């Protein structure tokens, strides 16, 4: 009978060939939720086969990318002849749907853009070397022998060894016949030695981190296989100090508050890293690579630098291309000596999140087709161009797309309404929540979907006012501003009704207007129109999806054929993951950062007029949205 | 009337031209001791004129080197027409005679060997640059502008900026029109930025440090003028953990004891640095250069490295050529970010003190004359050669030459007997103490002088036994071993007699035998004899002088004409000072370290025989000392 090992926990059982693995797990008392009962529909029982071959009936239930990485739905998997190692994903992640979220982002990106085997070269590498044993008259100190072995093995001209490691060197040299594993970071001909360890089971893991103004997302990677092991998103604890970058910059004026902000974002990142590492039984010191991307202000705050000059004329940040600092110096809870890559910024408001995001688009290729990249977050950032030119700009959208600044807004996590239809006659909402549980709030994609459907069904006018002329139990006109009740108290997850107010709708309209008018100004700047665009890439933390039709209906996105749009999810995180793994992608990112011409919208003539014109649904100029009416409101999936 | 300013303290007085400065100081209530009453003999009233011209009557009372540096004897100085700034040296230093000691070492060295103006290039430099002010559309971050200015000013290809300085950069860039003073350390094309300061009165000071097994000596330098400002020697606090390197290595076996030893030597160095800096009103952060030399074990202990393998076959130290570490990392109380030079070692027992010492000899020149360098300390180290070959070896002399392992031995400081004659008839001693105060102990040069005179006067035999056959109040045969009373209790400084025992004399004989036999083996190794030597350089902390005749009389040094000997004092400290100031001397030292062939005496056949033969006064082979008898015992000066 094959032996099945479940991890974490190393729980072992022997069962007959053909036994469902879910049964084996139950016999061991492991709680793996499989709510759909083996139909392979809910995706909740995702596990990973780390060794051995299981009998998994996919039938198209799981994306091939995941299956290639060893993921299976345990409810559709049976024991084969061989012993198996099964990795159970942490229940917490599953509950919040985080693993699925991040994994699915991967398949949103054109495979040709992802790192391939020849590109795989992290910043920090592990190399096994054998140190020549001390011999009388060889004239070499322990350090000399290390330098000899390390330069020859790593191709560096010299080494740099921290004092702490020099102290351990005499013992290391004389153990295991001088065989040691060096963790090193090579730069400008110097191999900076980060660790010297006995040969053995050292793991090599890495983290890709997206530091958003509102949320922080971390992916844990196995650097040997290149696989994503786990991923999680959480709020950036800095939100307590201001909802957008400008309020953070204001908050950061005093030194002790800068320290507070620095600690808060570290708390968020380190909190997730701790969870992810624990779920895989990984020690923090085994995490030897890190690639971070964030906007310019987030990077300054992480580094503890006063971001004041980002928002003061002439808008000069302290740093665009961030040097490699030690993780310990930055305050990241990974191997303290390892070096951290931080994605380069382009301007005060076009940051490393954008240069990371661009790696997920054809703007990172030799293509001559004109493309537009839009990263929709608390700030909206746009890059337009092709292999010959690149211009970038930013606008302040506010946190509405991330569920912020909306009374009942929330991040795209369990209980968030992510899609909402509106009945043309009764005005009642039909909605879908993440995790299929009673709703407790609404996320960005839910807001876009609801606004589009309210507008299309006639319950919301072009100026963002709810229709008070018709009777509907869904519209509450009691307060100063009218409210639209999506879910009454009795259907909600916490006994309180879930609604949006006209103020919320106004915030959303302002947000979409900021982004759309930025698109217009950018195109006008190069004498082009929307018809010249071959592709529009949309990035952002919208949870599982962004409905293009809904986005066009409200005038957030231009009225182009659906085939020209590509939603690429959290591209900042995916770009960070690419640069974590691949030198080619790091080089490409550095090149992109240098190539982008930054346009400051605040000094751009006509931007305010464009913005004002866009403060309607979909726009004051109906000719810009000729097919808007044909985009029939679709039922929520 | 000219204004006279006394520092430290900025005490100011106006006096008539021609007024003795001592009178001005007295009017201000400053206590400057001038015990010889203006005869210019005692040297106690040394001060320094830092600006203006005083009327100083030298008449050969002060070495010209000191006078050139502005030093005067205040008792022989009058106010001139101009205002004067007078620097009063700290009373503590004067009392201990330390300033005189270190200054006088300088004149022991051939001037051609000292750094000249074109060589003056410290490791860490200060460069004033003007940072381009931020301008719209220049596409440069603050860091980019710093890099641009710094690389162009320092000739480096790139810069490395610590995170702490990056945090201060935005403010610095925008002050004083962007003019900043960079403190930087250039290595392998990178300018490592150590500090960024507003232009102003930043001083630039440096320390040269000799870390001996028994004593630690520090010189404080003004890096702008190259002048020695002050100097002080103290015990190495590690002596509490063992008198010689072997006992230190044994003590260091446990990690917490290595930490203890590391802290002890730092305590000694930092204690002196604190005193020297305070005496000149210098902040620790203004000390931006440091050059240290010490033997291999001392360097390992300073770095906190287990020195165990230094004494175990095949005698392989962890490090010969020590990388530049940050002062803060090492624990030195100077500018924490500055880089510290540590002199390179050659072998387990031929360390950086020797490669520093060699810089004070013609072995550091293109001369083809065969020379022998002997550093006499707790360990005796020898280097033989010329511009074509260099061989080095070490022997354990024990601490006798530094006043250690001798019952009433002490360091060469106030109250130490440094020279002693013996009356041929009565056996009574006539002695000289440092500071001309009643004696409290005897230092190394005192021991050599006393032993030579006891032997020459017949009161000590060739085997080191005192003559018990004749009556003398100076010989006390009461105990197990006989004692020679140098000063009875009533003449001593602490009411106790100062004496040496036969055990002390035996220790001294073993010490001189170790060194002399090492000389013999070295010469034999290259098929040479003493007659082939053009010069014998003797280094060591013997206080003010070493009497060559006395040293030959006891058989410590070979019987060569006096003109062939050169006593060069604490050459390790002086070499450290040269490498502190000059790149040419650092390069030369690195080259010397690579060129020296290390001979391990413990595996050298015949060394033990040679040693045993040398355990007599002057030697069992009288032919080796043909002129020994002619070296008449001279009166103590």
Report the oligomer.
homodimer
N- and C-termini, Cα separation of chain A: 43 Å
The averaged pLDDT of chain A comes out at 89
Question: From the alpha-carbon coordinates, what is the Rg of chain A to the nearest angstrom?
Answer: 26 Å
Provide the β-strand percentage band of chain A: 15-25%
- Class by alpha and beta content of chain A: alpha/beta
Shape of chain A: globular
How are the SSEs placed, and which strands pair?
2 copies of one chain form a homodimer.
Chain A lengths: L2 E5 L3 E4 L6 H7 L18 E6 L3 E2 L7 H5 L2 E3 L3 E2 L5 E5 L2 H6 L1 H10 L16 E7 L11 H13 L3 E3 L2 H11 L5 E9 L2 E8 L7 E7 L3 E8 L5 E8 L9 H7 L3 H25 L7 E8 L1 H8 L4 H4 L13 E2 H4 L8 E4 L9 H7 L12 E6 L2 E7 L4 E7 L19 E7 L6 E5 L7 E2 L1 H13 L18 E2 L6 E5 L10 E4 H24 L9 E5 L8 H6 L11 E5 L1 H11 L1 H13 L1 E2 L8 H7 L24
Parallel strand pairs in A: 1-7, 9-11, 12-15, 15-17, 18-27, 20-29, 21-23, 27-28
Antiparallel strand pairs in A: 1-2, 3-5, 3-7, 4-6, 8-10, 10-11, 12-13, 13-14, 16-17, 18-19, 19-20, 21-22, 24-25, 25-26
Helix pairs in contact in A: 12-16, 12-17, 14-18, 16-17
Features:
homodimer, 637 residues, alpha/beta, 6-stranded mixed beta sheet, 18 helices, globular
Give an overview in words.
With 637 residues, chain A is α/β, with parallel strands linked by helices. Chain A has 18 helices and 29 strands. In chain A, the strands form seven sheets. A six-stranded mixed sheet of chain A has the order 14-13-12-15-17-16, with helices on both faces. Chain A has a six-stranded mixed sheet with strand order 28-27-18-19-20-29. The longest helix of chain A has 25 residues, at 255-279. Chain A starts with a strand and ends in a 24-residue tail after the last helix. The model of chain A is unreliable at 90-104 (pLDDT under 50). The A-B interface holds A 134-144, 158, 160-161, 163, 166-167, 169-171, 174, 188-190, 303-306, 308-309, 313-321, 323, 325, 329-330, 598, 600 and B 134-144, 158, 160-161, 163, 166-167, 169-171, 174, 188-190, 303-306, 308-309, 313-321, 323, 325, 329-330, 598, 600.
């Amino acid at each position: 009978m094959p032996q099945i090992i479940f991890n974490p926990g190393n729980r072992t059982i022997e069962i007959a060939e053909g036994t469902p693995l879910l049964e084996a797990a139950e016999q061991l008392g492991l709680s793996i939720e499989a709510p759909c009962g083996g139909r392979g529909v809910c995706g909740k029982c995702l596990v990973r086969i780390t060794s051995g071959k299981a009998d998994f009936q996919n039938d198209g239930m799981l994306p091939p990318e995941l299956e290639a990485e060893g993921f299976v739905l345990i409810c559709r998997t049976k024991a084969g002849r061989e012993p198996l190692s099964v990795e159970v994903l942490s229940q917490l992640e599953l509950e919040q749907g985080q693993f699925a979220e991040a994994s699915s982002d991967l398949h949103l990106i054109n495979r040709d853009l992802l790192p391939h085997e020849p590109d795989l070269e992290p910043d920090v590498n592990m190399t096994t070397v054998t140190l020549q044993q001390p011999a009388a008259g060889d004239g070499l100190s322990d350090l000399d022998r290390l330098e000899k072995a390390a330069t020859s093995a790593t191709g560096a001209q010299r080494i740099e060894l921290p004092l702490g490691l020099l102290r351990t060197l005499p013992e290391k040299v004389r153990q295991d016949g001088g065989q040691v594993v060096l963790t090193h970071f090579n730069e400008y001909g110097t191999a900076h030695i980060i660790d010297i360890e006995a040969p053995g089971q050292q793991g090599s893991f890495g983290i890709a981190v997206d530091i958003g103004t509102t949320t922080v997302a971390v992916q844990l990677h196995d650097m040997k296989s290149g696989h994503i092991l786990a991923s999680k998103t959480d709020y950036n604890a800095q939100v307590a100090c201001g909802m957008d970058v400008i309020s953070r910059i204001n908050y950061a004026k005093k030194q002790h508050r800068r320290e507070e902000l620095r600690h808060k974002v570290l708390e968020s990142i380190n909190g997730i890293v701790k969870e992810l590492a624990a779920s895989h039984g990984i020690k923090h010191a085994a995490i030897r690579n890190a690639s971070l991307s964030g906007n310019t202000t987030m990077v300054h705050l992480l580094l503890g630098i006063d971001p004041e000059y980002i928002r003061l004329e002439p808008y000069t940040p302290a740093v665009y291309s961030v040097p490699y600092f030690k993780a310990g110096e930055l305050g990241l809870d990974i191997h303290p000596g390892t070096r951290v890559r931080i994605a380069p910024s382009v301007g005060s408001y076009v940051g490393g999140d954008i240069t990371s995001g661009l790696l997920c688009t054809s703007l990172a290729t030799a293509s001559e087709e004109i493309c537009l990249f839009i990263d929709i977050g608390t700030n909206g950032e746009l890059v337009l161009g092709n292999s010959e030119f690149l211009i970038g700009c930013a606008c302040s959208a506010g946190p509405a797309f991330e569920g912020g600044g909306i009374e009942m807004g929330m991040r795209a996590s369990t209980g968030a309404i992510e899609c909402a239809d509106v009945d043309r006659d009764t005005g009642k909402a039909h909605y879908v929540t993440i995790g299929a549980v009673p709703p407790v709030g609404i996320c960005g994609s839910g807001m876009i979907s609801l606004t589009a459907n309210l507008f299309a069904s006639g319950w919301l006018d072009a100026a963002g006012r709810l229709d008070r002329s018709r009777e509907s139990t869904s519209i509450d006109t009691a307060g100063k501003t009218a409210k639209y009740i999506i879910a009454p108290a009795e259907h909600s997850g916490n006994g309180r009704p879930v609604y949006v107010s006209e103020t919320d709708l106004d915030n959303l309209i302002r947000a979409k207007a900021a982004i759309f008018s930025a698109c217009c100004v950018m195109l006008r700047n190069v004498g082009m129109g929307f018809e010249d665009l071959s592709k529009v890439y949309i990035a952002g933390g919208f949870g599982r999806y962004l409905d293009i039709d809904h986005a066009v209906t409200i005038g957030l996105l231009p009225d182009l054929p659906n085939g020209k749009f590509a939603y690429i999810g959290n591209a900042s995180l995916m770009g960070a993951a690419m640069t974590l793994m691949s030198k080619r992608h790091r080089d490409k990112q550095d090149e992109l950062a240098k190539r982008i011409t930054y346009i400051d919208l605040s000094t751009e003539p006509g931007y305010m007029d464009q913005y004002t014109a866009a403060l309607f649904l979909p726009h004051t100029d109906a000719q810009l949205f000729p097919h808007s009416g044909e985009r029939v409101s679709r039922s929520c999936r």
